[in-house]
Amino acid sequence: MSNEKLTGQQIADAGLDGWAFLSVYGSGGLYTRIHTTTFTSGLQIVNAIGEAAEESNHHPDLDLRYARVDVRLSSHDADGVTERDLSLARRISAIAGAAGAEIDCRSVSHVELGLDTPDHEKLGPFWAAVLDGRYVTGEGWADVGDPNQALPLIWFQRSGREEPRQRWHPDVWVDPAQVRPRIDAALSAGGTLVSDEHAPAFWVLSDPDGNKVCLCTWQARD
After folding, report:
1. Which distant-in-sequence residues (6+ apart) come within 8 Å of 45 by Cβ?
2. CATH topology assigned to domain 8-104
3. What pTM, to 2 d.p., does this model score?
């Protein structure tokens, strides 16, 4: 089975119903939510997934709650999604189906926090300290991340010093099919579509007070 990193389009072409390809900590992963009726049924599904993971020697991240199990799949050695992830995702879908549980990605999303600043070199170490995270820089970028990937990633966007200006904004990563419903819901709630210039990579919206948020997808990023 190939261990080459797949593009977003290749993942979409695989036709995995109920799974979303989202960017997390600069790397892509497959996500789904398995809806269960009891904690016990969720635990049984987790145990079955664990057996399948051991058989395939490929291990997902699992989050068990009373009425759901959240699953994330990625290949760390490839820094993204590979055929191994697609194969295990299909097995997990079959496990959920056999247990009578529904899977979906409609409610699955991931949040990153963007901080507009001309001086990330001054701010990054502070946020790494208070969050007990890691400040990492590269050519043209800088992040503060949680080594356990439990907290949202903070990334720094170069900006000027003009006032007034918004400094913090969330990036919400969603499945492409969920962009239109979320935009419609936001507009109905009094929001504004600020820009779709960079769609389908991201759309910029604002709340009634002008605070901005980006809806992001894998599209136009391969």
Report:
1. 34, 36, 69, 95, 96, 99, 101
2. Gyrase A; domain 2 (3.30.1360)
3. 0.90
